[in-house]
Amino acid sequence: MAAPAPQPTTRRWNRADWLRGYTSLTEERDYWIDDIEGNLPADLCGTLYRNGPGLLERGGQSVQHPFDGDGMICAFDFTGDGRVRFRNRYVRTAGFIAESKAGRFLQRGVFGTQKPGGWLANAFDLQAKNIANTNVAYSPKKLLALWEGGKPYALDPQTLETIGEDDLGGALAGNANFAAHPHYDRRTGEMVNFGIEPGLSSTINLYTLDANLNVTAQHRWEVPGFAFIHDFALTDDYAVFFQNPVTVNPLPYWFGFRGAAECLVFQPDRPTKVHLLPRHGGRMRTYETVACFVFHHVNAHIADDVLTVDSIAYETFPSLEPGTMYRQVEIEKIAASQLFRFTINLKTGASRRERLLERAVEFPSVHPARVGLPHRWAFMAMADAPTGNAPLQGVLAYNTHTGETQTYSFAPGGYVGEPVFVPTPGATEENAGYLLQMVFDARRGTSGLAIFDARNVAGGPLARLHLRDTVPYGLHGQFVAK
């Protein structure tokens, strides 16, 4: 007797509601949050800084893709006595200031946003606007707004006022850029980050910075071919880079028809290259694994000459058809992001890829004390449906030892961003801490912040902080304890 056909999963999201979460926040706010459900943890004291595109239109023209929106920093200040203050400020990049005065787009966006005037107005204008919209890096003296296509912008960490473009004391010379995914050495607290100089062969610059964001070491390696690398993984001795099998056809970009990212071409017949860069300089080692596309890594470690990397991977590059506005995209038809484990024998070169989760997930994190070590727990945002691609609507905790998952969904009316893990001070359990996750509540028409006990994700939020406005879906952030 034939097995019964699988039953379709009921979709618990609404396209119109999801798109409402992309409403620009045109005002800069500063207020104490007075609409709080539940109880704030007494030991949660510090500031959550979040970065993401906040302004998605100018002069009646929408960005082609949200990733082209101007960067906006949000700060949630937890006082420790049950009060939370919310602030948001735009990063006043040179492009933001000029376009605010002009009331229209003056520069092209990497993901397809064009200046008014058609291809003639855009042809051979190869200077993309630094939008400083992806992540942050903190020191007591300055907060860096990061965007991988250019230099960081420094802000005052207390007021969020923009100080200006920052070349890190001259370490970022010329057109050198600074990526948006720093990682931190669990032993020293040093920050490690990179920058890519693209070309027929690409140069990876690896930077080590101290607690004051001073560059203390810098090393360079050349890798053959075009390298589109968004993130990397950190072990005790290496920085691990996945060079996705993509190439670029620059002609449509040069002639003003497409954005740079719209010119990427995925090559499924080529392997993904895995580069191990010695953190203190030396010979690069390169391995291969099956073709895929990786935006974000969870963690990596090396034991007994075997490299293990957990990553969020796509079977193919999740591209949009050139010229397609993001509000028109059929997300169900785009490749889903799933949790994979890659293992590579560093002696033989043998590699293996294993899918750990079928559900679409993104924005992973682990306990900072497990960076570069085997980890038991990983936390990430998830789609509500167990299969297929869909908007992110919840949070998931995954036990790598047992395969256990704990999930909580805000469906049907909630849509989420990255869950930031905050360890409980003094606790020894790997999942002892809190998950802070931005949520757009379509029923209220506003955004907010949900706070979970990371040991009991399925139990739902301990507290929900409701804001007065919509904050467009952001990208990455960092919690700084007091």
Automatic annotation (TrEMBL):
GO terms for biological process: carotene catabolic process. It comes from the Bacteria. InterPro entries: Carotenoid_Oase. One of its GO terms (molecular function) is lignostilbene alpha beta-dioxygenase activity. This is Lignostilbene-alpha,beta-dioxygenase-like enzyme. Belongs to the carotenoid oxygenase family. Its cofactor is Fe(2+). Keywords: Dioxygenase, Iron, Metal-binding, Oxidoreductase. Binds 1 Fe(2+) ion per subunit. The lineage of its organism: Bacteria, Pseudomonadati, Acidobacteriota, Terriglobia, Terriglobales.
